[in-house]
């Protein structure tokens, strides 16, 4: 029996509908248009696609969007100056600097320079700290999207045994924090973890965010477990670029109870949650 497919395209469409309703309400009641400023440095092809999709979805939801495309040779001081300008622009409610940046730029410095109230990626140290301590904050988009998808399968996550494979600041750590807030018992597994396969086999929920194509196979998954595949790995197959997740979908889907596909799973949710964060930021800034 095949696993239930957790359809990120459908769920993200529902989130974007919610965003559009919030945007309309903010326009009607406060005469403001939630506006996202996206900063892209350099010519990275994948980043250009991501930015184009983000701006397109923002426009469809009735939001404002501003693009700043900077040369790959942009200096740290010039980038910091632009962020400072956006921080002080009352018409801008969310700021996103597309990562990765060219190697001569300091990502930590850039992330820390964005005002926490406009940090729609949820990466600023103050937002990270608020999430860790269970306080209201802007939450990283990909883990937030994963939680929305999980609740489609498990409206009550209390007591579930969850394993997060990967410990990045962008996905693994905030994902674990959100699962803890939902009263899961959480294990973070990583490259130094011993007996990682057996840990995953004992889990009700496995979140794969390790960045290695088809790393997790059927031997890792308990029958009926829910599998969230965050990985997006582009690999050449017969001269064509194909996307693979961190999970071997073909072997795992007959065993799992529910699973996200790649593509069409977590990816669309990340963009939807970015726009959801922008509307939330706009509301925070009203107070």
Automatic annotation (TrEMBL):
NADP(+) binds at residues 166-168, 232. Residues 6-121 form the Tetrahydrofolate dehydrogenase/cyclohydrolase catalytic domain. One of its GO terms (cellular component) is cytosol. One of its GO terms (molecular function) is methylenetetrahydrofolate dehydrogenase (NADP+) activity. InterPro entries: Aminoacid_DH-like_N_sf, NAD(P)-bd_dom_sf, THF_DH/CycHdrlase, THF_DH/CycHdrlase_cat_dom, THF_DH/CycHdrlase_CS, THF_DH/CycHdrlase_NAD-bd_dom. It holds the Pfam family THF_DHG_CYH. One of its GO terms (biological process) is methionine biosynthetic process. This is Bifunctional protein FolD. It comes from Halomonas urmiana.
